[in-house]
C-alpha cells in the first residue's frame, strides 16, 4: 500500500495535454538571439537594480516605489516586446512550437534535458525562419507588438493593481492605514505578474480561465506570475519577527519576495518546470478522463 | 425519491434526480455514479419482518460501533491528560504563598526567653529612622567598579568608569559605605525582582496564593511591614511598584511614571530627580520616612542602544552626579541604599539568567559610620562579581533590621555582614544576634510551610540538624556568659550556614524544573500524536472495525501498566507516588497495546503522507504554526498569522473551484471562497491587543483600549446578529431545499428568539453601565439573569431535546395518481404514468448535514450568549464562515475524499476566532466577569463552565461542526439488501468511520499545537519571555486540547448517533 510521496505540484504535460485539447500551449521565449540574451538580461537587471536601490527603498518605501514604478513598467514592457510573442500572433507562432514544447516537456520529465540550452534551441530553428518571414515588414511587426503592450499596461493598471491591492488587504494588510504602500506594492506585483500574461494572451477567455484555476502549463510568463504570488506570500513571513530591522516594515519584504519569486518563477517556468502544471489532487487526471 | 409500492430499480432514477435537481453539485460526485443499487424504501412505508430484523441488526451494529469509537476517543483524551499532567508537574513549579505576617511583638524564637529586653526597634536595635532606597534599573556590577582588564587586549568600553562614586566611597570611607555584587534570582525582570527584593523569597511561575489573577503581593514584605509600623512611604519612578503595592504609598508625594516606553530615556529619571531633591530639604524631612526611587534611564538606554554606547555613558554620569548630590544632602539618621534590580546582557536586554543579567550592584551609605568589614580580604569591593557576592534577598533582613522592622515572614535571605559587624569589624555579638534572629524566622517559615503543605521531609531533615547544632553552641555560649570573638564568630557562622542551606533547599524545590517529568509528559503526548496520525490519516484504516481489538489491547495494556507502576512504586524502584506511577505506566501500557493493534495486527498500514495539495496544505498549516511557536514574535502575532492562513485557504479554494467541471460547482465554489475570505477579514477587525503587540495594534473589542465595557454602538451588533444570522443559516438550508420540518421552527423561530433575547440582555447591561433606565440596579440585574437563563434553557434544554427527537429536515410528499401539482410547488416531479404513487422528498440532498447542523445551532446560541457584543458579531461571522467552508468542501469534492483540510481549517477557524472574541494567549485576557451573565453568584460547577464557554467558544463551536465536514451534502447511501450477506455493506459504519477520521484530524491539529507549545515552553524554560509568552501559550494549548477532546466525545461524535438514527428511522439503513 505504501505509495511513494508524489510531488503534488507538478505533473508532466504529456499526461494531461490530451485532456485539454483547446488550451493554449506553454509559451516559449522568442527564438531570436536578442530575445534569448535579453530574457536573461532582464531578470538579472531587475534584481541588480532592486538590490542597488534597496537601501533607498528601506529609507523611504513610498517615494522609492513610486519612482521605480514607471521604470519597472517600461522595462517590463520592453522585456515582453523583445522576448515574448504578442497576443494574436500565437496562430503563427505557437502551432509550430507546440510539438517542440511537448517534446521538451517530456524530455525534462524523463530528466535528460539540461535546464535551458537545447530546450530553447530546437524551437529556435523553426521559429527563426518564421520570424524572418514576418519580419519582412518590420514596422508592422513592431506595430503588432505595440497594441498588446498598450493593452497589457492598461489592464495591469486598471484591473490587476486593484485586484492585488484588495488581495493584500484580505491577507491582512492594514485596512485603514498604509493605503499608498499597499497600492504601490500591488502595482509592482501587478506589473511583474500580469504584464507578461496579458501581453502574450490578451483577453483570451479560456487562457484566463486556466490562469484563475492555476492550470496553465509552466512557461516563463506563467512561472513569473505564479512566482510573484508565491514570493510575496513567503515575503510576509519575516514581518512579525521582533528583530527591529527597518526592512521589516510593510511592504518591503513582500516586494522583495515578489521580485525574487518573479525571477525564480520565470527561470523555473522556462526550464525544469516547462509545460508542467500545478496539480491539486492525485486523482485529478484520472477523474478528468472519466468525465 | 422512490415509488414505494412498485419500486423499480431503473426508471425511477430520474425521479430521484428530480427532487435533487436543486443540488446540481451532486452530479459530479464519483460515489453517485456507482449508486446503481436498488434504493431502500422509506421505513414507514415498508413491511416485512425479516427486513425489520435486518434493519434492527444494522442499527444495533451502528450503535455498538459508535460506543466503541467513543471509547477510542476517550482513550486519546486519557493520553492527553496524562501527558499534560506530567509535563505540568515538572514545569509549572508552584510555591505556596503563606499569608502569615511577622509582627513586632512576637519574636521568632517561639520561646519566651529573649522577650522582655526592651530595644528601640522591633526585634533588634534599629540603626536608622529613615531610608532612601534608590533603584537604578539594570545597574550592572561592572558599571560601578573601575575597569580592570582581565587580559592584555581588553579595552575599556563606554560604560566603564562613569559611575565612580560608589567605589570611591566604599574604598575611601569603609565605615560609611560598602559596595557588593548583588546577585538576582532569575527571571531578571523588574516585576519579579521587586517581589524578591521586598519579600525575600524566590520567584516561581505560580505563587499559588489567594490572588491568582492580580499582581499585587499578598505575602508578608518589607513595604507592608514599614507601612504597618506607621511609616510614611514615598515612591518615585517606575509604576510597577503600584501594581505590586497598591495603596501603600503616600498619595500626595508619590509620583509613578509609565515604565514601558523604553525609547524614552529621560522622562522617568527627570521625574524622579525633580521630585526627590525637594523632599530632602530640611523643612520637608518630617513628611516622609522611606523613599523608594526607581530610575529607568540606564535600563532604557541598554534596551535601546546597548551598554557600549555614548548614551549609556551619559546616563551613568548623570547617576553619578545624582548620588553625589544625595550624599551631600543626607542627614545622619538616614540610610541611603543604591542598587540595581538586575543587570543586562551584552545587547542591553535582560530577563534570563546569564552572568551579566544577574549581576547587579548594591551600595549602602550612611553618615553615621557604622559599617565595617569582617576581614582585610574583604576591605575592597571585589573587582569581579563572581569573587564575592550577596544574593538579592539578603537586602530584606538587612534593611528590616537596620530600620528596626520585623523580618518578613517568608524571607530566606541572610543579614549582610558589612552592615552589622560595626566600624571596627569586630562586633561579632551583634552579627550573631541578627543571624540568630534571621535563622529563627527562616525556621518558623519552614515549619509553617511544611505544616501547610503537608508532610514534606525535603525541607526538614538536614537543615534541622544544622539549626540544632547552631542552637546548641549558642546555648553553650549564653551559659558561659562572656565569650571570645572566635566563639561568637563560629556561632554566627553556623546560623548563617543553616540559612544558606535552607535557601539551597528551597531553590532546589522551587526554581528547578523537574526535567524527567517534563520529558515523560512530552513523550506520552508525542506517542499519542504518532498513534493518532496513523489511526486518523492512514489510508484504508478500518477505523470502526479496528475499534474492538484496539480497545481490548489498550485496556489490557493499561491494566498491566497500572499493576507494573504500582508495584514499581511500592517496591521503591521509582521516586513517584503510587497513583502517579500507575497512571504513567497505564498510559505507556496502553500506548504499547495500541501500537501493537495498529501497527502489527491490523496489517493494513500505509504511510500517512498527504496525497493531494489539500493534504499538504493541512500539514503545512499545522506544522508551520507549530514551529512558529518557538518564536515569541509568531506567538504574539498568532491572530494575524491565522488570518493569513485562512485567507490562503480561501484563495486556494477559489482557484480549486475554478477547476471544477460543472458550472454550478464552479460558480458556487468561487462565490463561497470569496465569501469565506471576506468574512474572515471582516472578523479580523475585532481585536483585543496584548501588551507586546503595541504600538502596532489597536483594540476594538471594547469601547477603548483602557476600558472593558462595550461602546454604545456595539450594542447594535447583537440585534444585527439576531436579524441576519438565522436568515443566513436558512439560506444555506434552502440551497438544498432542506429548510423543512424541524428547521423552520428551530432556526426560524427558536434561534432567532434566543438571539433576540440575548440582544435585549446586552441592552440592559449597557443601561446598567450607562444608567439610561430609571430602574434599580437589582431589578435590572435579576431581569438580566432571568433572560440569560432563558436563553441557556432554550439553547441547551429545549435545543438538545429538539436535536434528539426531531425528524430530519425534509419534506415528504406522497401524491397519488398522475402528475398532480406538487404540494410544495418548489420542484415539480417529472410526469409519472397514471396510477403510480410518487414520493417527492425535499431536502434529500443534504439530509445528514442539515439534521446534524441543528446541534451546531444550539451551541452557537449558547456561545453567543456568553460573549460580549463584539464577540457575538464574531461568533456570527464564524457560523457563516463554517457554512461557507462546508459549501467549499462540497463543491470541491472534499466531503467524501477524507481530506484533512476540512477539520484542519475548522481548527484554524476555532483558533482565529478565539482571538476575535476578545481573548489573547495571556492569563489577563480571561473574561472572568462572563461567569455572571447567567448567574448572580459563583456556583460550581456552572461558573467555570460559563467561563470556558466564553473563552473557548470558538473552538467549541468548530469542534461541534467537525462531523459536518463529512456529513454536509453527503449522499444518502443505503444498504444494498441484495448483498446483505456480506457484512461490509453497512453504509452507516462508513459514515461513522469518516466522522471519527474527521474528529481525530481535528484533535490532531490541536494536539500538534499543544505538543509544540509544550516542547517549546520546556525547551525555552530559561527564556526571558517564558513567563510572559511561552508559558501562557502552553497553558492555553493544553486547556484547549482538553476542552476540544471532551466536546468532541460528549457532544460532536455522540451527536452523530442521534442524527444518524433519526435519518435511519426515515430512510432505513
Describe this structure in words.
The complex is a heterodimer of chains A (291) and B (1069). Chain A has 291 residues and is mainly alpha-helical. Chain A has one domain (13-283). Chain A is built from eleven helices and no strands. The longest helix of chain A has 33 residues, at 138-170. Mean pLDDT of chain A is 76; it is low at 1-21, 90-137 and 284-291. Chain B is elongated. In chain B, helix 21 packs parallel to helix 30 (901-916). In chain B, strands 6-5-7-2-8-9-3-10 form an eight-stranded mixed β-sheet, sandwiched between helices. In chain B, strands 1-4 form a two-stranded parallel ribbon. Chain B has a two-stranded antiparallel sheet with strand order 11-12. Chain B starts with 12 loop residues before the first helix and ends with a helix. Chain B has two domains: 13-39 and 610-1067, no CATH class; 95-206 and 215-372 and 387-510, Alkaline Phosphatase, subunit A. In chain B, helix 8 (240-244) links the parallel strand 5 and strand 6. Chain B: Belongs to the PIGG/PIGN/PIGO family. PIGO subfamily. Chain B: Pathway: Glycolipid biosynthesis; glycosylphosphatidylinositol-anchor biosynthesis. Chain B: GO terms for molecular function: mannose-ethanolamine phosphotransferase activity. Chain B: Residues 1-48 are annotated as: Disordered.
Amino acid at each position: 500500500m505504501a505509495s511513494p510521496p508524489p510531488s503534488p505540484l507538478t505533473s508532466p504535460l504529456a499526461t494531461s495535454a490530451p485532456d485539454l485539447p483547446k488550451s493554449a500551449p506553454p509559451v516559449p521565449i522568442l527564438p531570436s538571439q536578442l530575445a534569448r540574451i535579453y530574457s536573461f538580461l532582464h531578470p538579472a537587471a531587475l534584481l541588480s537594480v532592486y538590490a542597488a536601490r534597496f537601501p533607498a527603498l528601506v529609507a523611504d518605501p513610498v517615494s522609492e516605489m513610486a519612482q521605480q514604478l514607471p521604470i519597472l513598467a517600461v522595462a517590463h514592457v520592453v522585456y515582453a516586446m523583445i522576448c515574448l510573442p504578442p497576443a494574436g500572433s500565437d496562430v503563427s507562432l505557437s502551432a509550430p512550437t507546440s510539438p517542440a514544447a511537448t517534446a521538451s516537456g517530456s524530455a525534462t520529465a524523463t530528466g535528460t534535458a539540461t535546464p535551458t540550452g537545447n530546450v530553447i534551441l530546437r524551437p529556435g530553428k523553426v521559429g527563426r525562419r518564421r520570424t524572418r518571414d514576418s519580419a519582412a515588414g518590420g514596422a508592422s511587426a513592431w506595430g503588432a507588438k505595440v497594441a498588446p503592450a498598450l493593452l497589457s499596461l492598461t489592464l495591469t493598471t486598471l484591473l490587476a493593481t486593484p485586484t492585488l491591492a484588495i488581495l493584500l488587504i484580505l491577507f491582512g494588510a492594514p485596512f485603514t492605514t498604509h493605503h499608498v504602500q499597499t497600492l504601490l506594492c500591488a502595482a509592482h506585483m501587478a506589473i511583474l505578474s500580469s504584464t507578461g500574461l496579458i501581453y502574450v494572451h490578451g483577453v483570451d477567455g479560456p487562457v484566463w480561465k486556466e490562469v484563475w484555476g492555476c492550470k496553465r502549463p509552466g512557461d516563463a510568463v506563467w512561472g513569473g506570475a505564479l512566482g510573484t504570488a508565491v514570493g510575496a506570500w513567503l515575503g510576509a513571513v519575516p514581518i512579525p519577527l521582533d528583530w527591529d530591522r527597518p526592512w521589516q516594515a510593510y511592504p518591503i519584504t513582500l516586494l522583495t519576495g515578489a521580485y525574487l519569486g518573479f525571477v525564480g518563477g520565470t527561470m523555473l517556468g522556462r526550464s525544469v518546470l516547462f509545460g508542467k502544471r500545478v496539480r491539486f489532487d492525485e486523482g485529478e487526471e484520472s477523474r478528468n478522463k472519466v468525465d | 425519491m422512490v415509488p414505494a409500492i412498485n419500486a423499480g430499480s431503473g426508471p425511477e432514477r430520474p425521479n430521484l434526480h428530480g427532487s435533487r435537481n436543486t443540488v446540481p453539485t451532486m452530479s459530479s460526485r464519483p460515489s453517485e455514479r456507482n449508486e446503481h443499487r436498488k434504493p431502500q424504501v422509506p421505513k414507514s412505508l415498508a413491511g416485512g419482518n425479516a427486513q425489520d430484523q435486518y434493519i434492527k441488526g444494522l442499527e444495533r451494529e451502528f450503535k455498538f460501533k459508535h460506543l466503541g469509537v467513543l471509547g477510542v476517543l476517550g482513550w486519546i483524551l486519557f493520553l492527553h491528560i496524562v501527558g499534560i499532567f506530567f509535563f505540568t508537574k515538572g514545569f509549572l513549579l508552584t510555591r505556596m504563598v503563606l499569608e502569615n505576617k511577622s509582627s513586632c511583638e512576637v519574636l521568632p524564637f517561639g520561646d519566651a526567653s529573649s522577650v522582655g529586653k526592651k530595644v528601640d526597634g522591633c526585634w533588634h536595635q534599629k540603626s536608622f529612622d529613615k531610608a532612601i532606597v534608590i533603584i537604578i534599573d539594570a545597574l550592572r556590577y561592572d558599571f560601578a567598579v573601575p575597569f580592570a582588564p582581565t587580559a592584555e587586549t581588553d579595552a575599556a568600553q563606554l560604560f566603564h568608569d562613569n559611575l565612580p562614586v560608589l567605589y570611591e566611597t566604599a574604598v575611601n570611607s569603609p565605615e560609611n559605605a560598602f559596595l557588593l555584587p548583588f546577585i538576582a534570582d532569575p527571571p531578571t525582570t523588574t516585576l519579579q525582582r521587586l517581589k524578591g527584593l521586598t519579600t525575600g523569597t524566590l520567584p516561581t511561575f505560580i505563587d499559588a496564593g489567594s490572588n491568582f489573577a492580580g499582581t499585587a503581593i499578598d505575602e508578608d514584605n518589607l513595604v507592608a511591614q514599614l507601612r504597618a509600623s506607621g511609616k510614611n512611604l514615598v515612591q518615585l519612578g517606575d509604576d510597577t511598584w503600584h501594581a505590586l503595592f497598591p495603596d501603600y504609598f503616600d498619595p500626595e508625594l508619590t509620583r509613578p511614571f509609565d515604565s514601558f516606553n523604553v525609547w524614552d530615556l529621560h522622562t522617568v529619571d527627570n521625574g524622579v530627580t525633580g521630585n526627590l531633591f525637594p523632599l530632602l530639604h530640611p523643612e520637608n524631612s518630617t513628611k516622609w520616612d522611606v523613599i523608594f526611587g526607581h530610575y529607568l534611564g540606564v535600563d532604557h538606554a541598554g534596551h535601546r542602544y546597548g551598554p557600549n554606547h555614548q548614551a549609556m555613558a551619559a546616563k551613568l554620569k548623570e547617576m553619578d552626579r545624582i548620588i553625589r548630590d544625595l550624599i551631600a544632602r543626607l542627614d545622619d539618621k538616614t540610610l541611603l541604599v543604591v542598587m540595581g534590580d538586575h543587570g543586562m546582557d551584552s545587547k542591553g536586554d535582560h530577563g534570563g539568567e546569564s552572568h551579566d543579567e544577574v549581576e547587579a550592584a548594591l551600595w549602602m551609605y550612611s553618615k553615621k559610620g557604622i559599617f565595617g568589614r569582617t576581614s582585610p580580604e574583604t576591605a575592597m569591593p571585589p573587582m569581579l562579581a563572581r569573587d564575592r557576592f550577596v544574593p538579592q534577598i539578603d537586602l530584606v533582613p538587612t534593611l528590616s533590621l537596620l530600620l528596626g522592622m520585623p523580618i518578613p515572614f517568608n524571607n530566606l535571605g541572610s543579614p549582610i555582614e558589612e552592615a552589622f559587624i560595626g566600624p571596627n569589624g569586630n562586633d561579632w555579638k551583634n552579627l550573631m544576634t541578627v543571624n540568630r534572629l534571621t535563622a529563627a524566622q527562616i525556621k518558623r517559615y519552614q515549619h509553617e510551610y511544611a505544616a501547610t503543605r503537608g508532610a514534606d521531609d525535603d525541607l526538614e531533615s538536614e537543615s534541622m540538624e544544622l539549626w540544632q547544632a547552631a542552637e546548641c553552641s549558642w546555648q553553650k555560649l549564653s551559659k558561659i556568659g562572656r565569650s571570645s570573638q572566635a566563639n561568637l564568630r563560629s556561632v554566627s557562622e553556623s546560623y548563617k550556614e543553616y540559612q544558606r542551606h535552607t535557601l539551597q533547599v528551597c531553590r532546589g524545590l522551587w526554581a528547578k524544573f523537574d526535567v524527567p517529568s517534563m520529558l515523560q509528559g512530552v513523550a506520552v503526548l508525542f506517542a499519542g500524536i504518532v498513534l493518532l496520525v496513523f489511526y486518523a490519516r492512514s489510508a484504508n484504516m478500518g477505523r470502526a472495525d479496528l475499534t474492538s481489538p484496539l480497545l481490548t489491547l489498550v485496556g489490557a495494556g493499561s491494566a498491566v501498566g497500572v499493576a507494573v507502576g504500582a508495584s514499581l512504586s511500592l517496591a521503591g524502584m521509582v521516586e513517584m507516588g503510587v497513583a502517579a506511577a500507575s497512571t504513567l505506566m497505564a498510559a505507556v501500557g496502553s500506548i504499547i497495546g495500541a501500537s501493537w493493534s495498529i501497527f502489527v495486527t491490523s496489517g493494513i498500514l500505509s504511510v500517512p503522507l498527504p496525497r493531494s495539495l489539500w493534504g499538504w496544505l493541512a500539514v503545512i498549516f499545522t506544522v508551520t504554526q507549530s514551529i512558529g511557536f518557538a518564536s515569541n514574535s509568531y506567538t504574539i502575532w498568532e491572530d494575524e498569522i491565522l488570518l493569513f492562513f485562512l485567507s490562503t485557504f480561501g484563495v486556494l479554494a477559489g482557484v480549486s473551484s475554478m477547476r471544477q467541471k460543472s458550472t454550478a460547482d464552479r460558480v458556487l465554489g468561487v462565490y463561497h471562497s470569496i465569501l469565506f475570505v471576506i468574512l474572515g477579514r471582516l472578523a479580523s477587525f475585532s481585536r483585543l491587543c496584548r501588551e507586546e503587540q503595541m504600538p502596532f495594534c489597536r483594540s476594538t473589542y471594547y469601547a477603548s483600549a483602557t476600558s472593558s465595557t462595550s461602546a454604545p454602538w456595539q450594542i447594535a451588533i447583537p440585534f444585527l446578529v439576531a436579524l441576519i444570522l438565522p436568515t443566513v443559516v436558512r439560506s444555506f438550508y434552502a440551497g438544498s431545499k432542506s429548510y423543512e420540518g424541524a428547521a423552520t421552527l428551530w432556526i426560524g423561530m427558536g434561534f432567532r428568539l434566543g438571539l433576540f433575547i440575548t440582544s435585549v440582555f446586552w441592552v440592559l447591561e449597557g443601561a446598567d453601565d450607562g444608567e439610561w433606565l430609571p430602574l434599580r440596579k437589582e431589578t435590572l440585574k435579576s431581569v438580566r439573569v432571568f433572560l440569560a437563563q432563558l436563553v441557556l434553557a432554550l439553547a441547551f434544554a429545549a435545543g438538545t431535546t429538539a436535536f434528539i427527537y426531531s425528524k430530519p429536515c425534509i419534506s415528504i410528499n406522497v401524491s397519488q395518481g398522475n402528475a398532480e401539482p406538487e404540494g410544495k410547488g418548489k420542484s415539480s416531479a417529472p410526469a409519472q404514468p397514471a396510477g403510480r404513487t410518487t414520493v417527492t422528498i425535499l431536502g434529500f440532498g443534504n439530509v445528514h448535514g442539515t439534521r446534524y447542523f441543528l446541534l451546531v445551532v444550539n451551541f452557537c446560541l449558547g456561545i453567543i450568549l456568553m460573549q460580549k457584543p463584539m464577540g457575538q458579531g464574531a461568533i456570527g461571522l464564524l457560523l457563516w464562515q463554517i457554512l461557507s467552508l462546508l459549501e467549499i468542501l462540497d463543491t470541491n469534492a472534499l466531503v467524501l475524499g477524507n481530506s484533512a483540510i476540512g477539520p484542519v481549517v475548522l481548527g484554524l477557524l476555532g483558533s482565529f476566532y478565539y482571538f476575535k472574541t476578545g481573548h489573547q494567549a495571556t492569563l489577563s485576557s480571561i473574561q472572568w466577569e462572563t461567569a455572571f451573565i447567567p448567574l448572580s453568584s459563583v456556583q460550581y460547577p456552572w461558573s467555570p463552565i460559563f467561563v470556558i464557554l466564553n473563552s473557548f467558544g470558538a473552538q467549541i463551536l468548530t469542534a461541534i461542526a467537525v462531523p459536518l465536514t463529512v456529513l454536509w451534502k453527503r449522499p444518502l447511501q443505503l444498504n444494498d439488501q441484495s448483498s446483505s450477506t456480506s457484512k461490509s455493506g453497512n453504509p452507516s459504519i462508513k459514515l461513522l468511520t469518516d466522522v471519527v477520521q474527521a474528529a481525530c484530524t481535528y484533535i490532531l491539529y490541536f494536539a500538534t499545537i499543544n505538543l509544540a507549545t509544550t516542547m517549546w515552553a520546556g525547551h525555552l524554560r530559561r527564556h526571558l519571555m517564558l513567563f510572559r509568552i511561552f508559558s501562557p501559550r502552553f497553558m492555553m494549548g493544553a486547556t484547549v486540547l482538553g476542552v476540544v477532546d471532551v466536546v468532541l466525545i460528549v457532544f460532536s461524535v455522540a451527536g452523530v448517533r442521534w442524527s444518524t438514527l433519526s435519518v435511519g428511522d426515515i430512510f432505513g439503513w
